[in-house]
Fold:
Amino acid sequence: MSDFAPRYLADYSESNFSISTVELDFKLDETKTRVTNRMKMTRKVATKDPLVLDGEHLTLLSVLIDDEILSSDDYQLSDNSLSLLVDKAEFTLEIITEINPLDNTALEGLFKSGDAYCTQCEAEGFRRISYYLDRPDIMATFSTKVIADKEKFPFLLSNGNKVAEGDLPSGQHFVQWHDPFPKPCYLFALVAGDFDILKDNFTTSSGRDVALEIFVDKGNFNKAHHAMASLKHSMKWDEETFGLEYDLDIYMIVAVDFFNMGAMENKGLNVFNSKFVLADETSATDVDYFNVEAVIAHEYFHNWTGNRVTCRDWFQLSLKEGLTVFRDQQFSADMHSAAVNRIQNVRVLRSLQFAEDAGPMAHPIRPEKVIEMNNFYTLTVYEKGAEVIRMIHTLLGADKFRAGIDLYFKRFDGMAVTCDDFISAMSDASGVDLTQFKHWYTQSGTPIINVNESFDIKTSEYTLTLAQSNGDNPALHIPIGIELITAKDEQNQSTLLQLTEKEQSWTFKGFSQKPVLALLTGFSAPVKAPFSQPDQDLQIIMTRATDEFCRWDAGQKLLTTYIMQLLHNPALVLPESLYSAFVEILNADISEAFKAEQLTLPSFSELADSIDEVDPIALLNAIENIQHQIASKLAPMLLKQYQQNIQADYANDGKAIGKRALKNICLSYLTRLNDHQNLVTQQYQSSNNMTDTLATLSCAAKSSHEKLNEMMVDFEGKWQDITLVMDKWFAIQASVNDESIFDNLSKLIAHPLFSLKNPNRARSLIGAFVNSNPRYFHCASGRGYQFLIDQLIKLNDINPQVASRLITPLIQFKSFDQDRQIMIKAKLEQLAKQEVLSKDLKEKLDAALA
Ligand code: B3K
Ligand code: ZN
Structure:
């Protein structure tokens, strides 16, 4: 099969072979690591088909069957496979390969992160370690022996429990691990290095003692406490919420600086991007703290949803990812404000997932066709996948959902299963028919809900008609929460509607006047509902809906209406009603965190998604226009709020975090005005935490503040040795809203601390430019696009996964105006002409240019 040939869900078939045990032996060396892989295999079906093992970037040294060496005539080798004919039913296959971790800049398989060795095998990285049946439905018991220099690599880690260790000649030592739980090879992990270790322990509800160990680079010990606390909270929460306990004697987390994504849930040995482990008040923002907790929880929850029950094939990825994202969202909601969390989840969905679902790589949460699996770790599979699980939760209710989860584990523990298996457990345990609901797994695109209302004053009946559409797709089963807000002395009516037809009507009685509709309470479904409501209705929802999501959403709708008007008429003067809505928010008796969310405008990408062929610069002008008008009109009030929320001492409880968020959103409005620029420098100088410091730098970068450069130099001087903070410095530099940006980008690329080989660093510069500097990324000259293309050409060779993520806004070019479409398309064609193009980029380019 050609490397670029698509694979289809419909073509799934079981392997003819199974593997019961795997014994791995690693002799670590930077350029010549030797891997011995001994597998006990069984031929399940009596055919003559050859055994075809996956393998890439491997140097094969020898192959043995039942300890007999094969000659090279006995097998066939290609760039990505090893095939051999075996006529035995049961046999031991031993394969010795050599690999080069130092050369591995793709960071898949075994690679080096600084001085340490580590692995990343999901989705198909194990094939870069040894020849194997690299697919998730092949589950085996792994034993791993690691040999390395004792002084340089005192810690040699792998999955499961440590079973032996000892010294070897020439300063070498070994450690041997055994994982009793059969697993697919994507959950295999190995780490070797020298670390500081934060140790703790946890007693499970059934009384088992679990050792907890977090490995960080030397000197970072004090930055691991928040991660440890988060881990313990997650363990307790999963016991209390889902009755799920941890199952091994030890749980290890290793933080590394070179990592393609957030973290990886390898059994008993999570490997994390250090960004999601390390945190202390001086170097981490409130958002960093939140993310550390959420990612620690997410990976921990995978131990059940992902590891104990795994995916039959990669098309089923959302089985573990959608469910685990839903679980981590519920956890975060329980640990913090549920409403604020929900709002933040919806922002991500609306600004990024909706665009993905409208772009050339749109796919159902269970894709049907894949070329490069790494391209499918998407917002759709993760975030929309979590929304689909949330809808099941809504339709079943918490108790029946829990019964469904219990049945899922009872039926499928230790197995590799499908999304259909999950749904069958949910519907069998609850008695709820989910047949129609399953269309959510096969349709791509964001469904649109059209709304029609009528009110009969004579009968006091209110009729709501909802129509759903998503291309030619069959009707979905959509839970739609509504709240009807009536006259002040009447109680609001809340109910959950189940939209199952293309069009459906419901009638409600007993209103003295037409009620105001708050639609999609809690954002009950991942849909768009372009339903316009008069300003005064939106203000009623903002102040009188009991559903907090709808209160916030009505405010966003109000703001969006005026941004859209400013887009076509920049001279428009905003009405008093908009200001009074803002004043009401500022004076309301609600948490500061919620106020901050209400004052935050919909993002550039969210707004762009709702406009056909948007001119990005016109949209930015409209956004800046509304910010400026709000700031000018409400300056005294914003300043008062700003001052009231200054905290002398640093704390990071919910209240303190909310106050900082509110203060800093006020700052961002105020710095739109010339006469409040001094607030930025004052706050920069007096700040005692990273959230406040970064807020000043980001305001200064947006407003081309005259002291920006001075502050950036000062910041660099203070933080040059702290990698994660320097990522923030690069990101701010890339977001500077000024003509000088292109010269600066060249200087930043040449900065001694910049390297495309480090994914965090590459993303902090290139990703921040692309996503946080829309004015220059989309500038009419095309220089912004060319900058990205130039970096992608380099990244295509270095790290295809990182390149493939950064290309996203370009492949979605059809959402921009004609001039930009032409310009971007030409740039993509230029990239497509590269002689050697990774599968990752090629799949996306072909889809975009088709
Ligand atoms: N399962 C991993 C993601 C692997 C990505 C491979 N390209 C982390 C997570 O979702 O928890
Ligand atoms: Zn995950």
